[in-house]
Amino acid sequence: MLDTIKKSPLEPLRPVLELLADGETHSGEALGLALGVSRAAVWKQLQKLEQYGLALESIKGQGYRLPGGLELLSSEKIYSTLGEQAGVLLRELMLFDEVDSTNTELLSLMEEGRGHGVALLSERQSAGRGRRGRQWVSPYGAGISLSIGWEFNGGVQCLEGLSLAVGVAIARALERFSVPDVRLKWPNDVWCRGRKLSGVLLELKGDLTDRCAVVIGIGLNSGLRSEIATAIDQPWADLQQVKPGISRNRLVAAILTELLPLLYSYTEQGFVAYREAWMKLDQFAGQKVTLQAGSQTWSGVAVGVSEKGALKLNMDGQVQHFHGGEISLRGQV
């Protein structure tokens, strides 16, 4: 196992971030002494932190603090609670301060033939991507922005239902922390209390009929500030509001513990091994829904998913199957 921490413009600010991460108030003088710099230099660094969306608070006569603190990503902490099989399968763990998109970074590695078994995390994404070209809001230190690379033999047909199975893995990871009211929305969302908590974005490279490379991108909201989340165009949930105090590092380890063995065995097991678990968590089971793809729409009652992960929709007594792609699902009031 290898660990990589990529340098970024934020790297010089890590020491002051680590001092403020406890959420306590630190005077400019104390920060300067700890960092070996002047108070003026400390002030310049703190101004830069605010540019990254961190809620720095200045208390007159006392100093500065990050309300609520900040848990920085740590390879040591992630490895400390990683499951044994996942630890064997994880070839490299990469931690970034900032990237445009974790999926984009890992896709580049896959093209170079060195992305298999790599997990890539970033504290912040400047251009995070969701499904169907949507932006994924991922400010510094809030939530999880994770991509995993894996190569499969047998072509794209072996990957049917994979995004749904990944949703099951995320739900199982959340279950380890007793997160309540977790549900799954076809084809690639994790919901909590009727709102979106996490999304999955799969991107493929290589020969889609033989050996292909897949990047599984996972975004999960945890600690989003409401003023930043105004860019989100749908109802959203935040893990720290639902179940405060869950460690990001421990949750990353739990997701990898569930997901890496799934990827290792998926070409043999397929989605059928996860179908029952998915259907038990189906957010819209038995409900009227509308599907949309471009200008086309279909309405009916959601009646589960097939063994290949297709949504089953009962339309006037006829059950039809719909596969993912550009199709979106909405519940009917």
Question: How does this model look, in words?
Answer:
This protein is α+β, with helices and mostly antiparallel strands and about 325 residues long. The protein has three domains: about 5-65, Arc Repressor Mutant, subunit A (Orthogonal Bundle), CATH 1.10.10; about 75-280, Bira Bifunctional Protein, Domain 2 (BirA Bifunctional Protein, domain 2), CATH 3.30.930; about 290-330, SH3 type barrels (Roll), CATH 2.30.30. Helix content is about 30%, strand content about 30%. The protein is built from ten helices and 15 strands. The chain has helices at about 15-20, 30-35, 40-50, 75-80, 85-90, 100-110, 160-175, 240, 250-270, 270-280, and strands at about 1-5, 55-60, 65, 90-100, 120-125, 145-150, 180-185, 190, 195-205, 210-220, 290-295, 295-305, 310-315, 320, 330. An eight-stranded mixed sheet has the order 1-4-5-6-10-9-8-7, sandwiched between helices. Helix 7 packs across helix 10 (about 270-280). The radius of gyration is 21 Å and the shape is globular. It starts with a strand and ends with a strand.
According to CATH, what is the topology of the largest domain?
BirA Bifunctional Protein, domain 2
Cα(first) to Cα(last) distance is: 49 Å
What is the CATH class name of the largest domain? Answer: Alpha Beta
Tally of helical segments: 10
Give the tally of β-strands.
15
CATH architecture of the largest domain: 2-Layer Sandwich
* Largest beta-sheet characterization: 8 strands, mixed
Average pLDDT, to the nearest integer? 88
> Uncertain runs with pLDDT below 50, 5 residues or more?
none
**Number of domain units:** 3
Identify the CATH homologous superfamily of the largest domain.
Answer: Bira Bifunctional Protein, Domain 2
Class computed from helices, strands and strand pairing: alpha+beta
What is the percent of helical residues?
25-40%
- The rough form would be described as globular
Strand order of the largest sheet: 1-4-5-6-10-9-8-7
**Beta-strand level of the residues, as a percent range?**
25-35%
Radius of gyration: 21 Å
Order of helices and strands: EHHHEEHHEHEEHEEEEHHHEEEEE
